[in-house]
Amino acid sequence: MQEIINGLAVGGIYGLLAVAFSVVYGVLGMVNFAFGEIFMFGAFGALVATQTNTVIAGNSVPGAALPTWLAIVIGLVVGSLIGWLIERVAYRPLRNAPILSMLITAIAVSMLLRAVATFLFGAAQVPVARPELGDPLIILGARVQRIDLVVLGVAVLVTLAFWAVIRFTPIGRAIRATAEDKDAARLMGVGVDRVISTTFVLGSAMAAIAGILYSQRYGFAAATMGFIPALKALVAAVLGGIGSIPGAFVGGLVLGVSSPRPTCRKAPPTAM
Amino acid sequence: MKNTRTVGAIALLGAGLLMLTACSGSNPGGGSGGSDPIPLGYTATLSGDFASYGLEMKEGVDLAIEQINADGGVLDRKLTTDVVDDEGKPANGPVIAQEFCDNAQIPAVLGFSFSSVALSGLPVYTQCGLPVVASAVTSPELSGASEVFFRTVFTDAYQGAEAAKFWSQNRGVKNVAVLYQQDDYGKGVADAFSKALEEAGGTVTSSQAYQLGTVNFGSTVDTALKGNPDAVFIGGFYTEAGKIVNQIRDAGSDVQILASDGSASPVFLDLAGKNADGVELYSAFSASDPRAEATGFVEAFKKKYNKEPSSWAALAYDAANVVAKAIEKAGSTDRAKVVEEIRNTKDFNGVSGSITFDKEGNRVGTLTFQRVENGKFAVITE
Amino acid sequence: MSNTHTTPIVILKPELGMKRWIWPGIFLILGLIAPFILPGDKWIRVAALSLVYVALASGLNILVGLTGLLDLGFIAFFIVGAYTTAIFTVRSFGPVLEANPAALMWVLPISVVAAIVLAGIAGTIIGYPTLRARGDYLAIMTLAFGEIVRIVSINWTDFTGGAVGIRNIPPLSISSGMVPPTVTYFVLFGIVVILLVALASLIASPVGRAWVAIREDELVASSMGIRTRRYKLLAYVVGASTAGVIGVFFAHMNQFVNPDSFTLEDNFIVLSLVILGGAGTFWGPITGAVLWIFFQAVAKDIPLIQSHPEFRTGFLALIVIVLMLLRPGGIVSKRLELTRARGGALPPQGEVQPFAGAAPKATGEVVLAVDRLKQVFGGLTALESVTFQLRHGEILGLMGPNGAGKSTLLNAISGVTRATSGTIEADGERIEKLESSAVSTRGIARTFQTVRLFWDMTVLENLLVGGHTRLAGFLPKFLSPFPFVRRGERATVAEAEAVLSFVDVWEIRDRRASSLDAYQQRRVEIARALMTRPRVLLLDEPAAGLNESETRDLARLISRIREQHIDVILIEHDMDLLMGVSDRIVVLDHGVIIADGPPNEIRKNPAVLEAYLGSDAK
Questions:
Q1: Is domain A2-260 in CATH 1.10.10, yes or no?
Q2: Which of B131, C171, C392, C616 is the most buried (most CB within 10 A)?
Q3: Which residue among C46, C260, C333 sits closest to B116, beta carbon to beta carbon?
Q4: pLDDT at residue A71 greater than cutoff 50
């Protein structure tokens, strides 16, 4: 039981990312590997906004020292902006190119963003102050950290909100139509380019939120922090069924719970 | 046809690349002696997740060189560094080694963050007789691996055993839960520690490996805390150790935490925050060492970099000085002579203690133990 | 892919004589003189490393570029090869080699063979579960399996040395003492040349064509008689073996292996090389590998990079992005050579070879018998109960309003889908349970409602795929170093040209399929079907998109096909064509046959009229 509880929070984070992957894949037919880096920039955006003294590219500059809630918004904006930019500059021109070319461009974009982040923030892990929420609660015999509840709660809420947007709003309908048949949607008067951009921005926002949650939960941010979570989220999205929002989210939860499988050994033999 | 155009373009590209290699690969004709600087090779992992060790070592080397040059240099020549990033990839080891070997100006090489990279490059260094004085690679596999390999850092086998002895004697820890990172460093430390602990009459209650890059240690911590061990030992880099410490405290346990030199980094303090207090670890150096050499070094380091030196910086600083002294004593940059002098290093007063190399190239000396008190590392002697 | 992307006319005449040696010649010469023009031993090591990546990229190209299988765990095979030789030369034969270094002469080949076998097995194990998987699942599965191999190498300490790895692997020399980098380079160069020649031979053979066919259109490849699952597995095995072999030499080059030598990222790097260079071409991956490795090495020496190592990956990533925006197909666009046989210069006599599987039949004998065929898809019953026969010597028309189930019927007969119940007999043999490749070998060929050619191939290459089943056989048959061409290939090309001549498209045999007009495409598709030497030909709306004169021409073609003793089932909406050419017509409506008779009867049949025009028609 404790194991499951332990994994749910990070599972929620993976779930958020997985949903982003899933939706973008549905609309664009490609895997946007760069979501891991948007995840990371979201975290850094929020971090830098709160710092009194930031170190950018090795230079110490006075920071904005904004309150946490504002910093989170900034992180979101930064992430979404980057996502929008990537789509416009790198993906849109390649819409009709072979799918492999889009794949490798996505990977290259991901590498480029990592390099930029390393240049700006350094290669090491930067500590992030973990929020002090109080003592852990005991639920069903297991110890649950309050931060975990917050993380999971936010992840679920954001996913639900996104799902509601896709299901009930006009733009959501447009997204679903474009995902099913781009050409038919265009013929029906759907501004396909705008829809794709919007989907990207929404997905990036979710990735950014996931990144902020992650850095708050584990107390660090690093230029390379997005690589592994993105890979896990991708697996989750595929397992949950590409294009399915609930499937992707549940896939993320499952992956979060089953991930930490340390190879256990009993006490090692005395003869080395 | 368009094919010829492609051929032409590729040929041009290829020719261009070839020219570039000529520019970067060629060595400016060797001026012997005089005022030409002596380049020391420096290679370590300078990019990626674990760049911190390589960067910190470089800080130590740079400070040492700055001081040596201010003092007139070696053989009346200034020292410089030829820096190459190995990216943590063993495949790059031989290539970089060859590059250094080919540059006849280089009398010695410093650095190395990963033992696997060092191991892969060793055959080449041995072949061209270029001495290596490493300062962060701790794998026992490197002991005696080459007659040109030396290191100022202790081996995992030595450190793990010493640590187990120290803590079981001085803290009375009998049952320890061991956590280690899944690579040659973590395994080496864990194995040495566990063996020595059991020889001292203790028991290892559980032994778990974790992958580098793991952030979620919930289940790992739970298993480790089962059976109420006297202490938890973490054999790994600060990136994971910091998180493990946090999550052990999150789980409500205030068990004594012991760590290896992988946690001997200011970043560990940042990552673990308040939870770092009380953690004990071993390293080759402590910034609060009261010896004169150490305090002088710490002061100069703080002046140059605005922060306290990590043990990696200290070990690399010592390595650079050992090499400089050896070149001075050899009277030339001839590699064979320099190797001889390095081998003869005895009781060299480094900032990390007295340095002597045994016949396997390993450092003979004593380990330093530290405890985190009020967010700072403090030396403990018992 | 439908043909809404007609490209400008592209003629891809295969090179003859000396011209075809230019590209290989350049690379061979460059490779041979490289160690003597490169400044310094370091660059020779870099060159040797680039050879490793050349082999890796070429191997992955078989999977990703040729067959369209996105393998993200390719490095696993490389690991198997490297560890195999490490264990053999250090553990098993260690003492032997220490006493006598020259023994490497025979130990190394053992390692290589073992690596090929083990890597091939790994390829089969990893490939098999992915055979039925969709594209994205395939990628994830291969990624996961690749990771598993890496994790096993870390954990199986007794065998692989665990995280510490295996040291002191003997270098590539038969004497003790150090090996100059030049020697290592030339050994690697030799191995890579052999690998590339073998791969090129495989590509210019039915195997290579089958792979490309599977990538282009797996369904159609299957209807040509290609057992697609088998060839996909073969792609895995060939790619894996290539990686395994070069893994052996990598281990000896570095004299050390441990799990750190092969990371998850390396999978993406090799994939990038393939795509950057040009996936699906022969020289693309080679070019990509060489350029990339050298570029990386050069970039490392720039002082700016030295102070900011992250600039290197950033800069390289930027180059990749720019290159992809400018040339999405990759740097090299020179197409694969899919056959070494060259065709004739004059159009041959048009003829079609007869089906070889059974004795010729008498006119009127039943060739195909469909009995109470039922096809249900989920909740929809497409075919209710269909019963009819096809007799030898006749052209059977099949008509019906839209949604009647005509194409579904054709799909069931040709094995593309499996009927829910009922039987189909071809010459007395029950075929309703066979898959399409098996149906094709029974002599039943088909075309499709929208033309499905292998768009990237030329017309002639399309036809050669049609001749696949006659050429396919035991693998080593194809490993002939150029320029020797097998007799079978030559005969097949000659036959293909004859069929093209029969269908009157011989002149365009070297054009890329995507650059043909609608009628040419249709005829090529029919020619390709005829190339399989069928006895029954199923035509699905062949006149769609054709104008009147083309339709008349098509009618004549269909008659000529009948004269070749091939029986035809023709689905058509064009009534003039259908009524004009068919001997008998069967009418399908809502999944049942509502009429069966000669055209003039059908024309007046009230049930047919009602089905088409509604009950108001009289």
A1: no
A2: B131
A3: C260
A4: yes
Closest CA to C217 of C68, C330, C437, C5: C68
Instruction: Please return the burial class of C269, using the count of CB atoms within 10 Å of its CB with bins 0-12, 13-18 and 19+.
Output: buried
- Contact list in C for residue B88 (CB cut-off 8 A) is 260
B55 touches chain A (CB under 8 A): yes
Give the tokens for residue A258.
């089953």
Side-chain half-sphere CA neighbours of C290 within 13 A:
22
Determine contact, residues C327/C479, Cβ cutoff 8 Å. Answer: no
> Which tokens in the block code for residue B56?
């910190």
Calculate the alpha carbon distances from B142 to B117, B339, C260 in Å. 11, 17, 16
Q: Give tens-digit pLDDT for C131-166.
A: 877 666 788 788 888 888 888 887 787 788 777 788
HSE-CB for B202 with a 13 A CA cutoff: 28
Delimit the domains of chain C by residue range: 40-263, 366-613
Other C-beta atoms lying within 10 Å of the C-beta of residue C298: 22
Sign (positive/negative) of CA torsion A144, A147, A151, A154?
A: positive
* Residue C264 touches chain B, beta carbons under 8 Å: no
- Would you call C225 exposed, middle or buried from its count of C-beta atoms within 10 A (0-12, 13-18, 19+)? buried
Cα–Cα distance between C282 and C202 in angstroms, integer?
Answer: 12
Which residue is it, tokens 């003092």? Answer: B71
- What are C194's strand-pairing partners? none
Range C251-255 average pLDDT: 87
- Provide the shortest C-alpha distance from residue A194 to chain B (in Å): 36
CA C36 to chain centre: 39
Which residues does chain A have within 8 Å of residue C64's beta carbon, measured at their own beta carbons? 100
CA separation for the pair B275, C230 (Å, rounded): 58
Query: A270, B273: Cβ pair inside 8 Å?
Result: no
Other CB atoms within 10 A of residue C220 CB: 24
DSSP assigned state of B273: G
Tokens read off for B269: 């303090």
* Alpha-carbon gap, residue B50 to B285, rounded angstroms: 20
Task: Say if the Cβ atoms of A265 and B216 lie within 8 Å.
Answer: no
Note whether A99 and A30 are within 8 A (CB).
yes
Residues C82/C250, Cβ–Cβ less than 8 Å? yes
CA distances from B307 to A269, B320, B350, C514 (A): 43, 20, 20, 66
Nearest to C570 by CA among C595, C545, C537, C593: C537
B43: β partners: B84, B111
Q: Do B271 and A220 touch (CB under 8 A)?
A: yes
The partner residue sitting opposite C49, judged by closest CB among B7, B91, B102, is B91
Report how far residue B212's alpha carbon sits from residue B241's, in angstroms, rounded to the nearest whole number.
10
pTM: 0.83
Compute and round to an integer the Cα radius of gyration of chain A: 19
For residue C511, the cross-strand partners are C11
- What CA–CA distance (Å, rounded) separates A125 from B52? 9
C→A contacts (Cβ < 8 Å), by residue, are: 64, 70, 136-137, 140, 143-144, 155, 264, 268, 271-272, 275-276, 279, 308, 310-318, 320-321, 324-325, 328-330
Q: Which CATH superfamily is domain C366-613 in?
A: P-loop containing nucleotide triphosphate hydrolases (3.40.50.300)
Q: Which helix (H) or strand (E) holds C374?
A: strand C366-377
Higher pLDDT, C424 or C364: C424
Cis peptide bond prior to C309, omega within 30° of 0: no
Q: Which residue has the tokens 């010896």?
A: B291
Q: What is the mean pLDDT of each run of 10 residues along chain B (382 residues)?
A: 44 49 41 70 84 88 94 91 87 88 92 90 90 91 90 90 91 92 88 93 92 85 90 92 91 91 86 90 85 90 88 93 93 92 90 89 88 87 74
Tokens of B268: 């560990």
